[in-house]
Design goal:
alpha+beta, single chain, about 15% strand, six-stranded mixed β-sheet
Amino acid sequence: MILSVRYLTVGLGFVLAAAALAESEKLYTLLPDFQTSKAVLWEDPGRVEDRDLRYGPGGPELEPKAPFTFVKEDLSGRSPKVQVSDGNGRKWVIKFGDEASPDTFCSRLAWAVGYIAEPNYYLEGEVIQGAHDLRRAREFIAADGKASGGRFQLRSKDPEYMEGYSWGWQHNPFLGTPQLNGLKVLMMLVSNWDDKDIHEATEHGPALRYHMLVSYMRPGSNNAIYREEGRYLFFIDDWGASLGRWGAPFGRNKWDCPGFSGQSPEFLRISSDGSLQWGYRGVSTQRITAGVGPADVRWLMQYLGRVTDQQLQAGLLASGASAEEAACYTSALRLRIGQLERAAGGVQQTRMVTGAQ
C-alpha cells in the first residue's frame, strides 16, 4: 500500500509540474501585433533535389566551430543537454541520447520540402571546455571534456524564438490547408509519436488516460514559433521521438531502424472507398490523422517525391547514422514514400502558405 501511494505521489508530481508548464504557454493569438496574414508555415523550397541534407537550413556556413566552451547544463525536457558557445561566438544547445540523430535528420527533411526548421547539426567527439557539475549529461561528456555524439541546435536572436508561445494541431491559422496536412503526413512518415501540442496538455485533465501521464513526463508543446521581419514562422521544434516504432507508451521508441522498417508496410492503406488508413499511433493520434486526405498527399508529393535516395543517405550519415543504419532507413523511407505515391494523383502549384485571409 505504501509503495502504491509513493508511485501515485510521484505520478501526480509529474502531472502537476507539466500542467503548470502548459499553463505558462500562451496560444499564438496572443503574440504581439499578431495578424493571420503574417503567419507562415511553409515556403516553396524551389528545386528540392538540390537541397543539401548534409547541412540543412544553416548550410556549411553556420556549422558549429571549435573550440566549444561550456555555459551551463540545460535541464529542460527529458533528454540530457548542455549549452555551449563556439569559436565563432554562437550559442548552441547540445542534445545527447537517442533523440539527437532523429531530431537532426527529420528537421532537415522537413526543411527540404519547404517547412520551417531550426539549424541543427550532429557532431561527435568534440571537446567541451570547462564542463562541470553535470547531472544528466555526465555520462555523455568525459572528464577530459570529450563529448559523445550530439545534436547542436543554434540559439540566435534572429530569427527570434517566441518563448512561451505555441500553437495546436487544431488551433492554428492554417486549418484546412494542404500545407498543414502535409506537415501531419511528415510527422507520420518519420513516426514522430511525440505529437503533443499546447492543447494536449490542457484539455484532457491529468488523469483521464494513462498515456497522458507518460506524455506529461515530457511537458510542454513541440509546436513553436519564430518572429522574423514582421512575420511569424510556425514550426516543429522537436523531432526527437522519431525513426523508431509508433504505438502505445511501452511499445514505441526512437531511432530504431529494425522497428521503423518493420512497421513500414503498415504505414498507409487505401480503403475501397478511397479513404486513407494510417498505421501511425502517437500521443495524440486523432489530431494528426484527422482531415488528411488524398488531395493533401498529392500536394505534398510534389515536393517529397523529388527527394532522392542520395539526399536521404547523406542526411542520415550527417545525423550520426552508421552506413548500415543509413541504408536501412533509406529503404524504409522509400517504401513509405512509395505508398504515398500510390495514394497521390495530379499536382498543383503553391508558392507560400500564409494564414487564411
